[in-house]
Amino acid sequence: MRTTSLLGACALLAGIALAPLNTYAASPDAGMVKTVKGQVDIVRAGQTLPVQIGDLVMEGDQVNTGSDSSVGITLRDDTLLSAGARSTLVINRFDFNPTTHAGHLNSSIKRGTLAVIDGKIAKSHPEDVQFSTDTITLGVRGTEFIIDTGK
Amino acid sequence: MAMRRALLLCPLLLLGACAQQRVILLPEPDGTVGAVEIRSASGHQRIDTAYGGVDVSKGGSLDPFKSSQNSVDREYKPLLAARPPRPVVFVVHFEFGSPTHVTPDSKAIVQKILEVLSQRPAPELIVIGHTDTLGSDAYNDRLSLERARGVVAFLRRHGVTAKRVEAIGRGKRDQAVKTRNSVANQANRRVEITIR
Predict the structure, then answer these.
(1) Which of A92, A128, B3, B130 is the most buried (most CB within 10 A)?
(2) Chain A closest CA to B100's CA: distance in Å?
């Protein structure tokens, strides 16, 4: 038990020690899971993975929530997403350069509900941010909104 | 099974809301309102008022409507409750030309940072350095990254840890006080510490 936590602490310290040496290009993820309620999983490269707070979200991930469930994700450009019950959210594309704030965010909500608070890409390059359902596409102009797919 | 239940529930939902998509614009916490542009196969609509919305029919026709804070809070409570906490930003200032010499008031921020980190799920610490406009882009990119790394080291020495720690240099792209090029300015020599 103690060994495990010591090892964990060492790994954490090593991660932090390395962090300043890494450039932003070394962050391959799109963001991090911040809230989880009920049943949430991610489909990645054909595999279904259970989701916990602190897990990374990658470009291409499909995030699914069960009934009475929800998930909250903070993307690397500070975009805040949440998906409600029985939702399917796909991060089709995400890249972000934290030095220049250039990047792309393309995400679709296939069913259920999505709440968005936009981030740094939307503020400096709004034309490179797009949300969609099977019927509509949304362009974002510095804002917060809800998309309800009605199913 | 889930499908059948949805069909049974449908008549109970708001009139016209069945199997219909909608978008609702929310005001930011400070009351400002942005805009969204919605496009479908048959048209486009812009929403730019708080709680303004658009109903989308299956065929893609877009019908504006007005919602309200009460109705959004009621209908989308679990969705809004699931949003991650909003990022919080602390600012640390630097002595002229120094990558490491933090002004004294900046040290008081450490305690506050520890407090905020302890209250967040999987907290991330993103440390972003900025410079004034004196010097070349390359010089300022390097200096701003050094400042950010200096603050990361400073925070680590004071026991600050997080799920992710990142140092970033923004150079002179993002000025706190807008100046012409080649102007020394203390307010712009700063590091922003974002906790999210």
Answers:
(1) B130
(2) 15
